[in-house]
Amino acid sequence: MSDPAVEVRHRIRTLLVDLGGARFAGEVPDTVSLREAGLPSTALVGLLVAMEDAFGFEWDDDVSPEVLRSIDSLAGHVLVLSG
Fold first, then answer.
1. How far is residue 76's CA from residue 73's CA, in Å, rounded to a whole number?
2. How much is the average pLDDT of 56-61?
3. Amino acid 48: pLDDT
4. CATH number for the domain formed by residue range(s) 4-82
5. How far is CA 44 from CA 1, 23, 33, 58, 73, in A?
6. Long-range contacts of the stretch 5-10 (C-beta < 8 A, 24+)
7. C-alpha distances in angstroms, 71 versus 56, 66, 79?
8. DSSP-assigned letter for residue 28
9. Where are the domains of the chain?
């Protein structure tokens, strides 16, 4: 049986690749801050929009900045929403 968290993290990495971040997506560990790793804010916005389409939800205006920190935290948020 597959692990939903692994699948969501993989999908987020795939979205990053689709947005032109193939090198970035392959090098950044799941728990590392995307900002500290060098992801531009415009790329993060693109990722968030792509995640809405891919996972079928809309980001709340008051989402915690910690949720947007890393691939791992983004995946955790998606899993909570799909609950």
1. 5
2. 94
3. 96
4. 1.10.1200.10
5. 31, 15, 12, 15, 13
6. 5/75, 5/76, 5/79, 8/55, 8/75, 8/78, 8/79, 9/71, 9/72, 9/75
7. 18, 11, 12
8. S
9. 4-82
Report pLDDT digits (tens) over 4-25.
Answer: 999 999 999 999 988 887 777 7
Q: Are 24 and 38 in contact (CB under 8 A)?
A: yes
Residues 67 and 77: beta-carbon distance below 8 Å:
yes
pLDDT in tens, 35-57: 998 889 999 999 999 999 999 99
Length in residues, the chain: 83
